[in-house]
UniProtKB/TrEMBL annotation:
Residues 25-70, 154-189 are annotated as: Disordered. Residues 31-64 have a biased composition (Acidic residues). GO terms for biological process: aerobic electron transport chain. Residues 78-154 form the High potential iron-sulfur proteins family profile domain. This is High potential iron-sulfur proteins family profile domain-containing protein. Signal peptide: none annotated. One of its GO terms (molecular function) is metal ion binding. It comes from the Archaea. Keywords: 4Fe-4S, Electron transport, Iron, Iron-sulfur, Metal-binding, Transport. The lineage of its organism: Archaea, Methanobacteriati, Methanobacteriota, Stenosarchaea group, Halobacteria.
Length: 189
């Protein structure tokens, strides 16, 4: 029995080692994993190159993300006539800043919401294809989005309301004056 026990034990050791070595051979080293890694690296590099191509000439990645923006944006008003206060700007990371299409896909934004139609957006003023924001630091594209997005107040509605109010005031004033004059004439007689 001792001999059988040793032979059996030796067999199990060899079989276990063979299984481990066989498994290790199946799990890696066949070249496919290296190809996938190279592909991922290449993809990342292409994305970085595409992003670098988008940067305005002479602007570093740091400046693009965090500013400062060109002088014409520092003093410009947003589409809702809000002033840009440099000391009170939010970092892009804090406001979920991203491409509008990605925000829609992530269900953070509705279709059609982007910086180009946000009240805080300051449109391109120097021809580099980017604007700025009254509340977020760095360069901003019209096709971007952040959690601070708000619609531009409708000027037509405000203008119509003001015009109606002015017309009502004038009409009331005219009517009141006529009444007073008529009343004055009636008492004079």
């Amino acid at each position: 029995m001792t001999r059988f026990g040793r032979t059996r034990r030796r067999f199990l050791q060899l079989a276990g080692s063979g299984t481990v070595v066989g498994f290790a051979g199946c799990l890696g080293g066949d070249g496919e994993q290296e190809t996938e890694t190279e592909t991922e690296t290449t993809t990342t590099t292409e994305e970085e190159e595409e992003h670098e191509e988008e940067l305005p000439e002479g602007v570093s990645e740091e400046e693009f993300e965090h500013g400062p923006v060109p002088e014409e944006y520092r003093t410009a008003l947003s589409q809702a006539d809000e002033e840009r206060v440099t000391d009170e700007l939010f970092p892009k990371e804090d406001v979920k800043f991203q491409e509008a299409s990605d925000a829609v896909e992530a269900e953070l934004a509705q279709e059609g919401q982007n910086c180009g139609n946000c009240a805080q957006f300051i449109r391109d003023k120097n021809g580099d294809g980017f604007g700025a924001c009254a509340r977020v630091e760095g360069y901003i594209g019209a096709d971007d989005w952040c959690s601070l997005w708000e619609p531009i107040p409708e000027e037509e509605t405000a203008t119509e309301t003001e015009t109606e109010t002015e017309t009502e005031t004038e009409t009331a004033g005219e009517g009141g004056e006529e009444t007073e004059e008529e009343g004055g004439d009636a008492y004079s007689m």
